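Dear colleagues,

As part of the handover before I leave the project, I'm documenting each prediction I ran so the next person doesn't have to rerun anything. This entry is a single chain, and its sequence is reproduced below.
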Amino acid sequence: MGGHTPVRIFTTFAAISATLVMTGCTGAKHTLAAAGGRDGTAAAAGVALPTLTIRPAANAQKLPISTEISMSVVNGTIRSVTLVSASGGQVAGSMRPDGTSWVPAVPLQYGQTYTAQVTAVGPAGRTKVGTTSFTTMKQPATRPVQVSINLVDGQTYGVGMPIVIDFGAPIPVARRAAIESRLFVSSTPAQVGAWRWYSDQEVMYRPRGYWKPDTTLAVRAALAGVPIGNRVIAKDRTAAAAIGRDLEFKVTDSTHMMTVTSGGKVVHRYPISMGKPSTPSWSGHFVIMERDYYTVFDTLDQGPGGYRIGVNYAERLTWSGTFLHSAPWSVYAQGSFNVSHGCVNIGPANAKWIFYHSLVGDPVSISGTPRHVAPGNGWTVWDMSWADYVKDAVLPPALTVPSVLVPSTD
């Protein structure tokens, strides 16, 4: 039988001020002081000192609690950055891989004054220290925006698992680059990946190819306090998860068979039945999004032909209601012809094996049906080539190297 569409439960982020994207400020008001009083000595010796510029500008007010310490240095490199609150507490953080800014590991506090100190080192070990102080905005009175992420801490996922962030509010096109710049993905081993927007509220991330088995993932949506219109995002969202073994399911309509592979080798082949001509299945590249030992498909509210039936070993592929599931009532057709309402029907024993060996995030491909899945009807990040996936990317692909990825504690 086919499936109805159970309620979708999960979500993501917002726009960042000019301060965060490091534009519009100059270093004219920054306090720049020599470390150890060696400026004059260096000049006398003919050794040029570093030139250091820091943002936010000195005494900046009403800044988001997602503010970064951005900097540029000429004739030197950054040695260290410290950020201290007015109460004396030091804020942990780390540099972006490109060295353009330092990102706090946790959101800053509302209505608090902070002092940043940046040390640059130049030729002959000469140093330059710059400081700046700024104050964050007061906590807004409007209801905050709640963002969600589809990963669960400590869970293991399949090699096709995308990272999905749902903002629950529209993100204007002009603000998406700023939002993406605050979405951090780290993996071991490092792999190239990119974000792609599937609606004005949802952005997804995938690596160039499937994740390598046994990858560890850390994700931080560092968006607490980021403005969206007259509202702000409520919290950072973080997750630390793992990628498991390599398992893939390939469903072919012409043969009415499912092939299960691992490491490129066939593990099992199972007969299946898919959508009959009046309710054809979707073709495309999917991943398993949900897994239910038992659930009820109920389409009685959809007019004539509706039904209500309990099913075992149900694994969701699309939001429109396509599942892999046990179908003892269609065993007679499996391997021969299609009789379902759009789902992939599998014999009970075979469906049980699949259920107990599959993971959320396992890739499932379906080919040969008369219709193709639409982008975003499920986690469809693999339903296009890498070249097409990144064609409309807001920010270019990047290596998933550790940087500001220590989960925040909010």
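The helical segments are 39-44, 176-180, 348-357, 386-391. The longest helix spans residues 348-357.

All the best with the project,
I.
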